[in-house]
Design brief:
four-stranded parallel β-sheet; Rossmann fold; binds phosphoric acid mono(formamide)ester; 9 strands; 14% strand; binds norvaline
Length: 299
């Protein structure tokens, strides 16, 4: 079988791969800004993008990114395919591998992603599962690099749900040896191991954001958890990112949110609508980071 590289979790890239992708993403962004003729390293290839959950950023940034790399994106809503009628993911993997040069999947269980990767002979990319969102963190790291000029030597804080995005941040910080403090209410801890001295879990949001250079949050109820919204809103009271909370952070603290966001719930509107909002660059960087990722994985 042809050897292939996947991105199921950031561990698949390792520190070296993450840094290569993030730096290349920035180079691709600058090329695009300068209006240079874009290189088309995936000319003549095709990439399947399969969605079992809703998406705006991931879907559009991957579709445009694949196009800009010279390849053809095949975007599939899983419900409209035989997957939606119960065809096993293993069989889908085998069939799609005969047509396309990479498969990008957004799904629920991590086991589904793992089964796809195991049976596909082309690279598989995790475009969000219940357990992780590695592509988001590549774009987030690029955004930090742009604004702070470095990744190391900064204090990172996560405030809110220990969800898929938090899990991928834990992986990134463990791999890159970054200092991360997570403030998460009891019962909402991340599922990834935090067996790293530079990664701490606390309950008090103020403790997490004290002196922080980068503060990250996300919605309190992720896709598939809508029925728990009221219970979660009660559990997360006091975990909203506000100027008052961040008054103890570094003076030039930046706030990241993968979006979509709920203004006034997990995040104050100023971090979305204010002149220094980083979240729009963060969203844009999905395009550049995923182009760099595809270049890195697809041969
Ligand atoms: N951040 C993110 O993954 O957004 P979408 O759900 O719109 O793809
Ligand atoms: N944690 C969120 C991220 C959305 C991009 C969710 O899974 O719904």
């Amino acid at each position: 079988m042809k050897s292939k590289r996947d991105l199921l979790t950031l561990n698949d890239l390792g520190a070296e791969g993450i840094l290569a992708v993030v730096h290349r993403a920035e180079a691709l962004k600058q090329e695009r800004i300068r209006g240079e003729k874009l290189s088309r390293p995936l000319e003549g290839k095709s990439v399947a993008l399969i969605f079992e959950k809703p998406s705006t950023r991931t879907r559009v940034s991957f579709e445009v990114g694949v196009f800009e790399l010279g390849a053809h994106p095949v975007v599939l809503n899983a419900r409209d395919t035989q997957m939606g009628r119960g065809e096993p993911i293993e069989d889908t993997a085998r069939v799609l591998s005969r047509y396309v040069h990479a498969i990008v999947l957004r799904t629920f269980a991590d086991a589904t992603m793992e089964a796809l990767a195991k049976h596909a002979t082309v690279p598989v990319i995790n475009a969000l599962t219940d357990g992780g969102h590695p592509c988001q963190i590549l774009a987030d790291l690029q955004t930090v690099l742009q604004r702070k000029g470095k990744l190391s030597g900064l204090k990172y804080a996560w405030v809110g749900d220990g969800n898929n995005v938090a899990n991928s941040w834990i992986e990134a910080c463990a791999l890159l040896d970054l200092e991360l403090t997570l403030a998460v209410p009891e019962g909402y801890e991340p599922s990834r191991p935090m067996d790293n001295v530079r990664i701490k879990l606390v309950r008090d949001p103020q403790q997490a954001v004290r002196d922080a250079d980068v503060v990250i949050t996300d919605v309190w109820a992720s896709m598939g958890q809508e029925a728990e919204s009221a219970k979660r809103a009660a559990a997360f009271a006091g975990y909203c990112i506000t100027p008052e909370l961040l008054s103890v952070s570094a003076p030039d603290v930046m706030v990241l949110h993968c979006l979509p966001a709920h203004r006034g719930e997990e995040i104050h509107e100023i971090y979305l609508d204010g002149p220094d909002a980083a979240v729009w660059d963060e969203a844009e960087n999905r395009l550049h980071a995923q182009k760099a990722l595809l270049e890195y994985l697809v041969r």
